[in-house]
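Researcher: Sequence recovery benchmark, item below. Answer with residues only.
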């Protein structure tokens, strides 16, 4: 067994090749393409005017992904397209920064049906683009993917998860080409950890903070993708698509749709506390699920 240690977190490289890399190489691309939520950003950008410049497309990407969380992707696609068709200049720095925080809150709730505080993120982020990047978002984006990732993570309302979506959208829609895609450290969320533990990739999680574990696992996946000559963007999309099954908290979907289902070594009860089947509501299963969540170090809502 080929084990890799990151401080006190242990990863099984051979197990990762078996339960993650091998299925990805066999059917990963098909699985990604069949996931509808991953296709909506591409549908949106395909409908934009062919005269849009790279700068405008990058600014649109910033706007699109900032609001593409905590909302079903198909509805976000619909609302964004309505805004664009009504006035494709709506998101310019000049137009957005005419609003104060309260006006921005109303704008995003009325037009995008999203949390009001994201209007504040929008104003604060656009203000930083104006003052720190000379009113040009292309000064925020660098050919070095790690530099861009770090910069966008620091923008209001982004963080690692939304920053990853920003990078994916730029790359997948051929808006911007990074010179070193293989150096991307993919985002690692709650579901990635569950998959890693349940399939035996992650052997030990003791002694480190959740954020440290995320960082170490992300670096492990990046290095593994390099070793296997796999594009880390594609592997990240594959894991995200699996996570979309996990997030529905339905054991039937886990059993019949998840490509890793038959490879699980650990308990299958991680999400059962929110499933109303008879099997899920047993005290024993709830106890196992709660204990595993504590072990991973994440609060599950």
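Model:
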């Amino acid at each position: 067994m080929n084990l890799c240690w990151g401080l006190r977190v242990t990863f099984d490289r051979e197990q990762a090749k078996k339960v993650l890399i091998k299925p990805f190489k066999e059917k990963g691309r098909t699985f990604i393409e069949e996931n509808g939520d991953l296709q909506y950003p591409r549908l949106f950008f395909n409908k934009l005017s062919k005269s849009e410049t790279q700068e405008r497309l990058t600014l649109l990407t910033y706007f699109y992904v900032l609001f593409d969380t905590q909302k079903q992707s198909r509805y976000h696609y619909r609302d964004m397209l309505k805004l664009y068709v009504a006035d494709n200049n709506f998101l310019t720095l000049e137009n957005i920064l005419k609003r104060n925080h309260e006006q921005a809150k109303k704008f995003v709730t009325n037009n995008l049906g999203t949390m009001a505080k994201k209007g504040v993120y929008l104003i604060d982020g656009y203000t930083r683009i104006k003052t720190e990047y000379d009113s040009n978002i292309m000064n925020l984006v660098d050919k070095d993917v790690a530099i861009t990732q770090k910069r966008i993570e620091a923008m209001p309302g982004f963080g690692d998860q939304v920053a990853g979506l920003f990078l994916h959208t730029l790359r997948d829609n051929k808006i911007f080409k990074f010179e070193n895609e293989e150096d991307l450290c993919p985002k690692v969320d709650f579901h990635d950890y569950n998959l890693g533990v349940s399939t035996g990739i992650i052997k030990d999680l003791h002694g480190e903070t959740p954020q440290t574990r995320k960082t170490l696992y992300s670096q492990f996946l990046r290095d593994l993708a390099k070793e296997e000559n796999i594009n880390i963007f594609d592997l990240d999309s594959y894991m995200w698509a699996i996570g979309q099954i996990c997030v529905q908290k339905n054991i039937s979907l886990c059993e019949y749709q998840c490509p890793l289902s038959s490879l699980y070594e650990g308990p299958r009860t991680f999400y059962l506390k929110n499933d109303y089947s008879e099997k899920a509501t047993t005290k024993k299963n709830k106890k196992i699920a709660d204990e595993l969540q504590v072990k991973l170090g994440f609060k599950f809502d």
